[in-house]
Amino acid sequence: MRALLSTADAAADLRRYFNDELEGAAPAFTGSRFEHLDGGGDRADIADVVTAADLIAVQTLSVQVPPAAALALLEGPLAGELSVLLGRIPTDLEMANAEPGLLEPGSPADRAWHLLEGQRGLGWVTTNKLLARKRPRLLPVYDQVVRCAVGRPRSFWLSLQGALAADGNALHEQLLSLRDGAGVPGTVSALRTCDVVLWMSHAAGHKEKDCAGVPA
Fold first, then answer.
1. How far is residue 39's CA from residue 124's CA, in Å, rounded to a whole number?
2. pLDDT at residue 133 tops 50
3. CA 200 to chain centre
4. Which of 41, 63, 156, 165 has the greatest number of beta carbons closer than 10 A?
């Protein structure tokens, strides 16, 4: 991961992905609006509830919450269950600074993940993206491309947290430096910076049959 982040392509890919934020242009990648749409999913007044804007934000990352699940998240019993769990997940904590217990099986974040993933039509990719919208500094976007790029770790959350926190948060700081050097807004989290770099580096190659990940 550090090798990928150190390439000249990493900064260029970030600038290309967030071009609309940097230059006010029409977005080349709709995902560049994921964290910023309607002020963000972790905005203080809506941090513990799923809103219509959250559902649209998830669509910018090429997934869609089915209508029945969307209604349940907006006004059904599922909305209340998820709100309780979100209320127990910090909004102001970076993954690099989180205790592993916040991400381990049985934690509120883990329970929220299983609650969402268990809904019809909400697979693991959409679930990760929805939770990343609500807690962008603590919970990462994670999809098939990134999973393939990083070698399918048994627990992506715990593996990534350990990597970010190692050596005095060295990787976390590298991500922030890369983001700032590329001129990307500071409202883009270290986690999202990591996601975009990994995704941009591997999206094209991932489309090839039997893709095994980024070459060594």
1. 25
2. yes
3. 14
4. 41
| Closest CA relative to residue 90, chosen from 146, 56, 134 | 134
The per-residue b/e assignment along 66-99, b for 16 or more CB within 10 angstroms, e otherwise, is eeebbebbbeeebeeebeebbeebbbeebbbbbe
Confidence class for position 5, pLDDT limits 50, 70, 90: confident
The span from the CA of 190 to the CA of 136, in Å, is: 9
For tokens 């991961």, the residue is 1
- C-alpha 81/C-alpha 62 separation (Å) is 26
Label residue 213 exposed, middle or buried (CB < 10 Å: 0-12, 13-18, 19+).
Answer: middle
Q: Which amino acid is at 195?
A: D
Count, residues in the chain: 216
> In the predicted model, what is the mean pLDDT of residues 53-70?
96
